[in-house]
Amino acid sequence: MKYIVEESIQREEELIRRLRWFINLRWVTVVSVLIITVSAEYLFDLSIPAFYVHIGNIFLLFYNCVFYFYNKKLSIDVGRNRFRKINMLANFQITLDIVMLSYFMHFTGSIENPFVFYFIFHMVFASILLSNRAAYVQASFAVCLLGGLISGEYFRIIPHYHLGAFFKEESFFNPLYVMGEFAVFASVLYITVYMATSIINRLRLMDKQLEVANTHLKEQDRLKSQYVLTVSHELQSSLSTVQICLKVILEGMTGIISAKTREMAARAELRCVQIINFVKDLLSLSRIRAGREMQKNNISMSEVAKRAIEQTKQKIKEKNINLIEKIYGKGLNVIANEDSMEQLLVNLLTNACKYTPYNGKIEISLMDTEESLVGQVEDTGIGISHNDIPRIFDDFYRAENAVVFEKDGTGLGLTIVKQIIENHNGKIWVESQIGKGTRFIFALPKTG
Amino acid sequence: MMGHKRLLIIENDIDMVEAMRVVLGKDYFIDNAFSADEGLQKLEIEKPDLVIISVMFGSLKKPDGIRLAVKLKQDRLLSQIPVLMVTAVDVSALDFVFSASDRTELRVDGFLNKPFQPAEIRTLVEKLLSTGGRETNWRQE
């Protein structure tokens, strides 16, 4: 329901935008009519009744002002009949324009005036803005109006203003000429509407198909996420139960156990933890890839770093690794998803800790540059070989020396890191030397 | 003596209940319920000192545990009982299932992610019982 409402609001906004454009064109028309009339009068001596043209032009200016303000009002209106109002405004504007153009035509030679083909523009507008039927009605209205005008002039019910400079001889009263011109004019209008509406219909159909496809995709995406969540929940629930049952045994809560039983239970428990971590990483990755609910706020990276360090401190301490923090600048604010940023730093620190031997060194630094926030996690670990570097961010990939050094690992930690960086339009790269250490450097645009 | 305090564990995984019983059984009286309905009934009758509720995604469309926790905190009498929420999926993953308004409704006193260490749940239960709980939104935890 919410979706449909959003869609219709989008359509309304589109209509309002087009009407605004239409109104802007009318300002141009007012100025052009003035210039053409004045030059026709003084430069080319076309002997047209300029007074009436100016009156018409003033009226055009006046109603365009009215439309301008009304359109402005509609653009902030949130009433229920908004779409109907906008549609009526579009219909009314086109009708009024057709009347005005006919008025100008009457005083400037009617069918003799080449500007008569400017009706085509109104037909195109009508086809874009209105329904097909309304566009044909507008075309018929224009044809009738001009037909009436020409007939009136031909039968001398109303005066005909001859464009002397264009046509030396009066051909208007030649029935064949008038009828021929008029027939061409009418057919041009109908053909224009036909062509424009055909194109518009196809576009509208494509729009609709896209909309349907989009809804379908969103639903698929939701189902997939639910699927992943259900599966990982089931796995994690069962594994957690297994783990806590083993833990209870290991902690002696169920009585004294033999050393061998303890060892086997400890092995089972460790495997449990590993597989739980794997499932967690998998879920994490699919959530980040889905990119949903990624709320980005203005967050302080120095605060996030503090929390990430707090989370990994224990493991780093266990290996007697020296952790150096170099957080330059206060706050280090960036527009980002807080949870993701924490995970990014935790993963980088955990990774560094995992592949750094005892008594090593890890250095985390964050600094502000003009447009981005640059972070760096450097270790004195085993390093990554030249061949492995291009693949370390791939799903499940673990470098050969990494597997040898540390059996436990999901091969997803760095994939998650990379995905988080990409979700934030940032960049990450790595510099490493086998046996010396590794440095991960990332840059995040401060604006998200 | 802490042994007088009563805990109610609402969890549909019997193995998990048994494990928790081993961990907490020495210090507390423990009762359990396998469904939200049974849990609510027992809550009203027994008025335990603390309730441990599992998220229980029996079916994703109806995560009973969360509905129950929300309901409990809206109840005038029962809302006094501290609630410890236990979940196997990272709390932030619940974004998948809940809209923002649902999320703000869920205010419990403690969260614990599975798997947890025996010591962790013991400490948390002890803390919640001594302070009487302090509601937090899951984001602030």
Any overview of this molecule?
The complex is a heterodimer of chains A (448) and B (141). Chain A is of the alpha+beta class and 448 residues long. Chain A is built from eleven helices and seven strands. In chain A, the strands form two sheets. A five-stranded mixed sheet of chain A has the order 2-4-5-7-6, with helices on one face. In chain A, helix 6 packs antiparallel against helix 7 (259-290) and helix 7 packs parallel to helix 11. Chain A is elongated. The relative contact order of chain A is 0.06. Chain B is 38% helix and 20% strand. Chain B starts with 5 loop residues before the first strand and ends with a strand. In chain B, strand 3 (50-54), helix 3 and strand 4 form a beta-alpha-beta unit. In chain B, the strands form two sheets. Chain B has a five-stranded parallel sheet, with helices on both faces. Chain B has helices at 14-24, 36-46, 64-74, 100-105, 118-131, and strands at residues 6-10, 29-33, 50-54, 83-87, 107-108, 110-113, 136-137. The A-B interface holds A 225-226, 229-230, 232-233, 236-237, 239-241, 243-245, 247-248, 251, 253-254, 272-273, 276, 280, 283-284, 287, 292-293, 339 and B 13, 15-16, 18-20, 22-23, 57, 60, 88-90, 92-93, 95-97, 114-118.
